[in-house]
Specification:
The complex is a heterodimer of chains A (about 160) and B (about 120). By secondary structure, chain A is α+β, with helices and mostly antiparallel strands. Chain A contains 4 helices and 8 strands; from the N terminus they run ββααββββββαα. Chain A has one domain: Alpha-D-Glucose-1,6-Bisphosphate, Chain A, domain 4 (2-Layer Sandwich), CATH 3.30.530.20. In chain A, β3 and β4 form a beta hairpin. Chain A is globular. Chain A starts with 9 loop residues before the first strand and ends with a helix. Classes of the chains: A alpha+beta (about 160), B mainly alpha (about 120).
Chain lengths: ~160, ~120
Amino acid sequence: MAVTSSGTATVTLPTDEQILITREFDAPKHLVYKAWTTPELVKRWWNAKRGEVRIAEIDLRVGGTWRYVMVADGGVEVGFHGEYREIVPNDRIVSTEVYEGMPEGAPGEGTLNTATFTEVEGRTTLTVLVQAPSKEIRDAIIDSGMEAGMQDAMDLLEQVAISLG
Amino acid sequence: MARAATTADAFNAVAEPRRRQILDVLAGGERPVNDLVRELGLPQPQVSKHLRVLREVRVVDVRDEGRQRLYRLNGHALKPIHDWVKSYERTWSERFDQLDVVLEELKQKEEGDGSDE
C-alpha cells in the first residue's frame, strides 16, 4: 500500500521478531531528523496525545544514552531508555530501547531500533525497524502499545463483545 | 507430541512463515493446490498440511469446482490480528500527527531565517 501523503503510520510485521513502522512527512529529512533528536522537540510529539513527556534526554553520539519518561493521563509513569549504536546525521540512527516498566525487566530484553530517513522531492519517509530478541518480546511490545491507549483497548473490547453477540 | 496449539487460533496459524507465504499467494485470488506447490516449491503433502491448519482456523476456505479443489483467503478470520496491530499503529500515528505540527513550525522558521539573510 503506497503512502501518498502524510497520514497514518503503517505498521507491518516483517518477521516474527520485527516491527516495521513507516510514515511519510511533508518536510525535508534534516528537519525530521532534528525533530527526532532534539529533546525539547521530542517532548512535543512523543507523548502521542496521552500525557506529558517529563524527561527527554538525548546524548547523541555512539555509546551515548537516551531516556524518555512520560506521565500518562491518569498518572501512570512510563519510561524508556537506550544507547546509540550508530549515527549517520540526517540519514540513520541505530539505538537500543528498553522499556523500564517490564515486570521482569531482565537486561538484554530490549530491542534494537533502526530509524532511517529518506528524502524525495522535499518529502521524507521515516522507517523505524524494531528488532526484538524473540517473538514473545515483539508481541509484548505491541500489547503495550494497546495498553498505552485506553480508548484503543475499549474499542477492541467492543469489537470482541460484538463478535461474541 | 502435543501439537494442538498451532490450530488454536489465527495468531498461531500464521506464526509459521510458510503458512504466511500461502496466504500471500491466496491474497492474489483463488488457487488450486498445484499452484501453491509450484509457487512455494514445497512437496504437496507439506502444502496440504499447512492448508489444513489454515482451514481449521477458517483463515482459508475451500470449494470444489469440477475435479479441482480451490483454496481462497478468508480475510475476516485475520481481523483479530489486524486489530491487534492497529492499536499499536494508532499510538505511532498520533505521535506522528504531532510531529507534523512540529515540522511545520521548523519549516516556517527555516524559510523565515533564509529570507532574513
